[in-house]
Amino acid sequence: xxxxxxxxxHENNHHNGSRIAKKxxxxxxxxxxxxxxxxxxxxxxxxxRINNGSFGCCPAFIIAAQHRWQxxxxxxxxxxxxxxxxxxxxxxRTLIKDLVNADHVDEISxxxxxxxxxxxxxxxxxxxxxxxxxxxxxxxxxxxYAYGAVxxxxxxxxxxxxxxxxxxxxxxPVNSNDEIVSEFRKALERGKSNGNRVRLxxxxxxxxxxxxxxxxxxxxxxxxEEGVDQVFVDAAHSIGCTDVDMKEIGADFYTSNLHKWFFCxxxxxxxxxxxxxxxxxxxxxxxxxxxxxGNGLAVESAWIGTRDYSAQLVVPAAMEFVNRFExxxxxxxxxxxxxxxxxxxxxxxxxxxxxxxxAHMCASMVMVGLPVCLGIGSDSDALELRTHLxxxxxxxxxxxxxxxxxxxxxxxxxxxRISHQVYNKVDDYYKFRDAINQxxxxxxxxxxxxx
Length: 451
Fold this sequence. Notes:
The structure is a single chain. By secondary structure, this protein is an alpha/beta fold. The chain folds into two domains: 90-317, Type I PLP-dependent aspartate aminotransferase-like (Major domain) (Aspartate Aminotransferase, domain 2, 3-Layer(aba) Sandwich); 328-449, Aspartate Aminotransferase, domain 1, CATH 3.90.1150.10. It is built from 15 helices and twelve strands. The protein has helices at 3-16, 33-39, 52-55, 60-75, 77-100, 114-130, 148-159, 177-192, 216-225, 246-249, 297-302, 315-322, 328-351, 379-393, 426-441; strands at residues 48-49, 108-111, 139-143, 164-168, 198-204, 230-234, 253-257, 269-273, 365-369, 395-396, 399-401, 414-419. The strands form three sheets. Strands 2-8-7-6-5-3-4 form a seven-stranded mixed beta sheet, with helices on both faces. α10 (246-249) links the parallel β6 (230-234) and β7. The termini are far apart.
């Protein structure tokens, strides 16, 4: 089916106000390799983009859908505001609700990104401290590998309000879920050791750097058994990357971006708030206060002032796009996982290193050890080497510095986080392999990049 025909279907669905099915009745066959290449033809072909995890990607089909929404707004803003916006966002929320198996659409709010969602939840926690529902010194638990912006939100909201933040140290490289569960239990005991209550646990579903899939269901069950008031899952990477089911996971709050692994343009994420969670989450509010304040988080989030809402309105188009692939989003996840593990193992073998975790603890991203001889000895070394790979070799990949533990000698201190998305080709990873091999052959070390 032509793109023009797809666009016609998409427009008619919106004008009719009908809900687009998760598996639309398209007469086209499964998307071809050449069609995928066309959809991502705007990518810089001189760069091996193996970093989908940071910013995601958006195909031409969805960019076109976004542009149509933008033009509808610019054509007649008043009509758009009074007739299109609320209906369109409700349609997106409904599709997300079905996608993540939530009980009710009221549990789904659309926000800009997972960082915004974290601010909403932690702002609510801060109010509980300030208004006396939580006692000074009560605990909020989070993983040591929590996303940097979430750690800053902890400072801005929880610590300033009198809460005590306890971090769960996680091993890396990691060999099993048991290692994570063990450290989590120890941190819970530390949090409760002085008679304080653990009011909130913030758990990543897929940690960002280093990337590891966390056994969230098991950790949440432990939280319930140990009397933790509420659980917030920061799952910035999850939608389109790993399995997401609100009923199975059982969190009070859960957020994921749709612009990382679900092909939407920036910026769109959802925040799930379980109906009547323990301690009540009904008084959550968007940090930007606008005219809808007090009408519920979903309604507040749907209007935070005049801005471009088009990214939040293309979820139906994203659904159409993923269902052009064999198996839909489930098929994409499976193939991405298998491909990234295969490419990670290829790189590790080429460099004589190892993966940062077993395959079952990876999703669509894998940590791959870099040769020790590169001399990655700090975070700044990792950042400078990343820049060098981009500028000199056309390879875009984030690097992680793993400090050696006491007594460790000759261990791998540098890891690359490689991603795989539908646009990636084997040559992208060969390009990265060959770049590192060339640096090693040239006797390069990170010290060569300093001053």
